[in-house]
Amino acid sequence: YGTFECRTVDTLLAFGSNGRVYSVAVSLLPGARGDGQPVTTLIELESGTQLLHYFAGPANATLLLSNSGGYGFLAAVENMVSRQKGGKAFITLGEGETVCVPSHAAGGTGSKPVVPATHVACASTGGRILTFEITELKTMANGGRGLMLIDLEDKDTLAGAAAYSRSVRIDGMGRGGKLRDETLEIRSLNNARSARGRKGKLADLGFKPASVVRVA
C-alpha cells in the first residue's frame, strides 16, 4: 500500500472504511527481516471494516483528509493518535461514502523534508479538476466532515485530493482495465484554479481518475 521513511519515535496510522483512524507506534513494528506482521494483529478492527490507507510519520506532520462526497480538512498526526486499540472516530462519512487517500501536506522528517503545500488539487471520477489555495481549508483537531472541496455533479464522486506545491499525479483506469496515470505540473494545475467549492474544469485525461497523489 505504500512505503514511508520514518523513525522509531513516529506513528503508523491506518485509515478504516468506517472513518476511524487506528494508530500503532512504529517502534512496535517488526524489523525489516521476515514477512512482518499483519497490522490487524496490533489493533482491534470493527467487524465489517477494512483498512484502506496508511501513513507513517511524526506527530507534527499535517495531512489532507478527504472523502468521496467531496469534503475534506487538514489534521495533524498527533490529533489522530489514540491509546485505544479500537482507534479513534475521526472522518465523518455520509451513506455510501469512502475515505480517499490521505495527502501529506506539511511537517515530517527524513532525508527529504516535505515542503509545506500551498495548494490543493481535487479530481472527480467524472474527470473534473479543481485547484485552490490550501489556506481555504480548516485544520480540525477533532476531525469531522470538513468543508466542501469541490461541487460534484449528480452521481459524480471525488476520486481524491492532494496537497501540493508544484505537481500532482492522477492515477486511474483506462479502456480495457489498463492502469493509467498523468502528472500535472504548475501550468496545467493553474488552468483549473478557482475558489474552493466550485465545480472545476473538465480535463481531457482519457481515463477515469481513481486517486490523486502529491509529487512535489
Defining traits:
216 residues; 5% helix; mainly beta; 15 strands; 2 helices; single chain; four-stranded antiparallel beta sheet; globular
Strand order of the largest sheet: 3-1-2-6
Q: Any low-confidence stretches, pLDDT <50, length ≥5?
A: none
Q: Round the mean pLDDT to the nearest integer and report it.
A: 95
CA radius of gyration is 17 Å
Which percent bin holds the helix content?
under 10%
DSSP strand count: 15
What is the straight-line distance between the termini?
20 Å
- Percentage beta strand: 35-45%
Structural class: mainly beta
Helical stretch tally: 2
Largest sheet: 4 strands, antiparallel
Query: What is the general shape?
Result: globular
Order of helices and strands: EEEEEHEEEEEEEEHEE
Describe the protein's architecture and organization.
Helices cover 5% and strands 36% of the residues. It has two helices and 15 strands. The strands form four sheets. It has a four-stranded antiparallel sheet, with no helix packed on it. Strand 1 and strand 2 form a beta hairpin. The protein starts with 10 loop residues before the first strand and ends with a strand.
